[in-house]
Amino acid sequence: MARALLALLALVPLARAEPLDELKLQGEHVVEGMQRGNLSGLAWCGDALWALSDRDDQRIYRLETSASPWQAEAEHFELPPPPANGLPWGMRMRAWGSGLVRGGRMDFEGLSCDSQGNRYLVSEAQAGVLRLNPASQAKWLALPDSLVRQARASGMLLHFNALFEGIAVDPAGERLWLAAERQRRGLLVLHRRQNSWRCAGGCVLMSEGGNEPSLSTADARPVPRSFTGLAFFNDKLFTLESAGYRICRRSPANGEQEKCWSFANAALAEGRRYDTPFGVAEAVWVDAQGAWIGVDNNGQRRQDGEKRPVVWRLDAPPGGWNAP
User: Fold this and answer.
1) What is the DSSP annotation of 10-28?
2) Which residues, listed in sequence order, are joined to residue 203 by a DSSP beta bridge?
3) Coil, strand, or helix at residue 3?
4) What are phi and psi of 195, to 5 degrees?
5) What is the DSSP letter of 93?
6) Beta partners for residue 51, in sequence order
């Protein structure tokens, strides 16, 4: 009886004690030149904003922002064979088949960078991380075998197309966080020791399940709680939670939620809505002045007819991201 009650409570959306503070939309930018669309990662690396698509396996994009619409300039790289990932055979085969049909065998879903100019791409299909050095030479990181095993033991990475959805790296390139998307969602951390990555005291920081009301639908139908993007700024993690149209600040040590801000007013304004209950914000980068949010519309048109990838610029909250 107790177990059944807990399972029932997990399906009940959490009630908010009070409305979240709204982030102000500073600007909206349409992106031209992404061959397959589906913008799924953003990162400010060096002197430019970079993006990736989950339909492209061998290119990322430098965004030229001096004119409107923004232009995506492709940077190509040679993709080495991915290493073994520890995922079940059936899940690997589904990812392989999906990649053949829609394109994007790697299903790159997140982008980050360090102060040395290395770019880090997380592959959902491979549950792996590809590093591009400043010369665009690609190499898969040697992740510990225990990473996927610990994640699955905590209830994450159990469902197809619900694996790693976000990545964040500290400027020194010594700590790396991964966000598991949904059913269950969670955060994991790895530490670099010379040229290898290790789980120091365990990979899993947090894991949670349950549903929440979709803000995209009039009936607020329940959808799984999810993480769709991850960023690191000023020694804090920031999770993008698209179903709730919010960015949340979290502890990098244990993943504990500290404060959240909403961008629902901007994203759900007249003309910007997409016909989906899940939310389409899938990329995030946070800096002192604000946040960049990237939209993966999966080929859909929104109410105003726009079908190209879109990037929103949100102002930082009053008092900054570390305000109590």
Assistant:
1) HTSPPPPSSPPEEPPEEEE
2) none
3) helix
4) -105, 15
5) H
6) 42, 61
Residue 63 has pLDDT above 70, yes or no: yes
- Overall number of domains in the chain: 1
Cβ-proximal residues to 216 (8 Å cutoff; 6+ apart), any chain: 243, 268, 273, 274, 276, 277, 278, 279
159 pLDDT higher than 70:
yes
Q: State the amino acid at position 300 in one-letter form.
A: Q
Give the tokens for residue 132: 């591009």
Q: Which residues pair with 180 in a beta bridge?
A: 164, 186
Provide the residue type at 201 as one letter: G
pLDDT tens, position by position, 250-270: 999 999 999 999 999 999 999
Neighbour count for residue 112 (Cβ, 10 Å): 27
At 191, list the tokens: 């530490």
Torsion of CA 188, 134, 116, 257, to 10 degrees: -30
Range of the domain at 147: 24-315
User: What are the start-end ranges of the H helices in 103-161?
Assistant: 146-153
pTM over 0.85: yes
- The pLDDT of 297-308, averaged and rounded, is 91
Q: For the domain that residue 202 is a member of, what is the CATH number?
A: 2.120.10
Longest dimension (CA), the chain: 62
Those residues with Cβ within 8 angstroms of residue 240's Cβ, 6 or more apart along the chain or in another chain: 166, 227, 228, 229, 230, 231, 247, 281, 282, 283, 284, 293
**What is the spatial distance between Cα 313 and Cα 24, in angstroms, rounded to a whole number?**
9
Question: How far is C-alpha 38 from the chain's CA centre?
Answer: 13
**Hunting for tokens 């004119």 — which residue is that?**
67
Phi, psi of 156 (to 5 degrees): -100, 165
Confirm whether 191 is domain-assigned.
yes
Residue 13 is assigned to a structural domain of this protein: no
